[in-house]
Amino acid sequence: MGARVLLVEDEANILEAISFLLSRDGWEVHGHGNGGTALETIARLKPDVVVLDVMLPGRSGLDILRDLRADPATERLPVLMLTAKGQAKDRDMALALGANAYLTKPFSNAEMLETLRHVADPDGDPSSTGSTP
Half-sphere exposure (CA, 13 Å, Cβ side) for 8? Predict the structure, then answer.
């Protein structure tokens, strides 16, 4: 089984497309669409990596990221921020709050896979990610 990823994304078509892409790459994918309950879902699922949209109903991804980094249980959880907000100040804010990487929509499938693999395993051990040999 590949690494477990939680995709926190409220747009159903994006959630479905990314889930399909990651599943085909060997990831165990779980989706969640509400920022207000994302932290509870993270605590319950204990994912290996989180893909977190910035703009979510209920609570922003940046607020969720801030809480993840403040909690000793999740302070090192790899987080890939995913957003339509492409301005440098938005990216800089996410990285300052502790995001491991930042992808702007639209993105290519290859870019998503490469970035997520790196976030999940920055040292490059393919056995600890969803990538297949």
Answer: 30
